[in-house]
From TrEMBL:
Keyword Transmembrane: yes
Signal peptide boundaries: none
Superkingdom field: Bacteria
Membrane-spanning segments: 12-28, 40-62, 74-91, 111-133, 145-164, 170-192
Designated name of the protein: Spermidine synthase
Species name: candidate division WWE3 bacterium
Keyword annotations from UniProtKB, A to Z: Membrane, Transmembrane, Transmembrane helix
Ranges in coiled-coil conformation: none
The keyword Transmembrane belongs to this UniProt entry's keyword annotation: yes
Length: 205
């Protein structure tokens, strides 16, 4: 029973982080477009920056997981992701004003804006998966099954984040409220993941 509960928790974690990554990506163009306009450069920059940030997060998360891993560490990374997603709403006005007044080419403006707003949150989101994989694998004979289960739930979360955000959230909430919602979801997930649902050890981790 405890094993099933732990497995469900890890699957929920990768599902939610997958959802947040894609939802954050979908709303990214809405955040940048007032300063740069709607163009292929925005989507190119957002996709490239987020993929690069996730890759770096996977690398750093894997190195961290090799040292040691527990739910406290996993919760901490989710909490940091929540904080930096929230910071996006705080920083965006200043960054958009700078980009609007800058004479730089729109390609570079889109790239700089994407990097400034979306890189750090996605690095921390990327760090979650390797730690979840390490916690999931308790028996080497079932490594393939355990890892595929998390890949499936992460992908399902990404698909859900794409459709729910594109079809509903953007229309009903707007970009700023979506960012607040995603941050809140991650804060709740960090609390749920933390040992005995105690946030204090995470904050001072």
């Amino acid at each position: 029973m405890l094993v099933k509960k732990a497995s469900f928790k890890l699957e929920l974690i990768v599902f939610v982080t997958g959802f947040v990554v894609m939802s954050f990506e979908m709303v990214g163009s809405r955040i940048l477009s007032p300063a740069i306009g709607s163009s292929i450069y925005i989507w190119t920059s957002i996709i490239g920056v987020i993929l690069g940030s996730l890759s770096l997060g996977y690398f750093l998360g894997g190195r961290s997981a090799d040292k040691y891993v527990d739910l406290k560490k996993l919760s901490a990374f989710i909490l940091y992701a929540a904080i930096f997603v929230l910071v996006t709403n705080i920083l965006k006005e200043g960054i958009l004003v700078y980009l609007s007044n800058s004479p730089m080419d729109s390609k570079f403006a889109a790239l700089i804006g994407s990097f400034a707003l979306f890189s750090i949150p996605n690095i921390f989101l990327g760090m979650v998966s390797p730690l979840a994989f390490k916690l999931k694998i308790t028996d080497l004979s079932t490594t393939g099954t355990a890892s595929s289960s998390l890949f499936i739930w992460s992908t399902v979360g990404s698909i859900a984040g794409t459709f729910v955000t594109g079809f509903y959230l953007i229309s009903y909430l707007g970009s700023a409220n979506i960012v607040y919602l995603l941050s809140l979801v991650l804060f709740i997930l960090a609390f749920y993941t933390s040992p005995k649902n105690n946030m204090l050890p995470i904050v001072f981790y």
